[in-house]
Design goal:
Distance between the termini: 8 Å
Shape: globular
Number of strands: 6
Strand content: 15-25%
Radius of gyration: 15 Å
Strand order of the largest sheet: 3-2-1-4-5-6
Helix content: 10-25%
Number of helices: 4
Order of helices and strands: EHEEHEHEHE
């Protein structure tokens, strides 16, 4: 059994712009909400939601030469959590991608691989030694967060049924995660 009192659930970027109808929708992204809400009802020490929180001229936007459409602009409805995500279990929010000149896929570090979001310090301060990661998109921000969690020394689990990726086939991403030491867990494990 997993000691949930020393574990944190990390909900990665479950935001309106990443759901169907959003500016950068993950295919079937809304299909994870029931599983995510079920996970968040367990007695984790902390439930931490990451949130893309971009300035209006962020470097990742295609209008600024980046690869993505404008999405998750700070303070907009697209950056908000969806109404179907149960908010009560969330104990902390980590906002990422907040600097105009730097993106952040991981919940731990900006893409420069040097600037911390504060998540590692928060987890250490709470006495967390294991993280369970779920959310959007599996092949980008979920993977980056899980791999950084391993690098920071946390036992790291990903719950595939509570994740969706841009790619319709998650096999390569899940294999990469497992090779790096991430364990894949079923929802009924908790």
């Amino acid at each position: 059994m997993i000691d949930l009192s020393r574990s944190a659930l990390i909900l990665v970027d479950i935001q309106n712009d990443f759901l169907p109808g959003g500016a950068l929708a993950v295919p079937n992204g809304d299909s994870i909400l029931e599983a995510v809400n079920a996970l968040s009802r367990h007695a984790f020490r902390a439930v931490i939601a990451t949130q893309d929180w971009h300035p209006s001229h962020h470097c990742s936007f295609s209008s600024q030469g980046g690869p993505w459409p404008i999405h998750c602009v700070a303070g907009t409805q697209g950056a908000d959590f969806p109404e179907a995500l149960t908010p009560e279990p969330i104990t902390h929010i980590i906002r990422k991608g907040v600097l105009q000149e730097r993106d952040s896929y991981s919940g731990f570090l900006d893409n420069d691989r040097a600037t911390s979001t504060g998540l590692d310090g928060l987890l250490k301060g709470l006495g967390i030694d294991r993280v369970v990661v779920c959310g959007l998109a599996l092949d980008y921000c979920v993977m980056a967060t899980a791999l950084d969690a391993i690098s920071c020394g946390y036992q790291t689990d990903v719950v595939p049924e509570a994740c969706r990726g841009i790619s319709s086939n998650p096999t390569a991403t899940l294999e990469k995660l497992e090779k790096q030491g991430v364990r894949l867990k079923n929802l009924n494990t908790f």
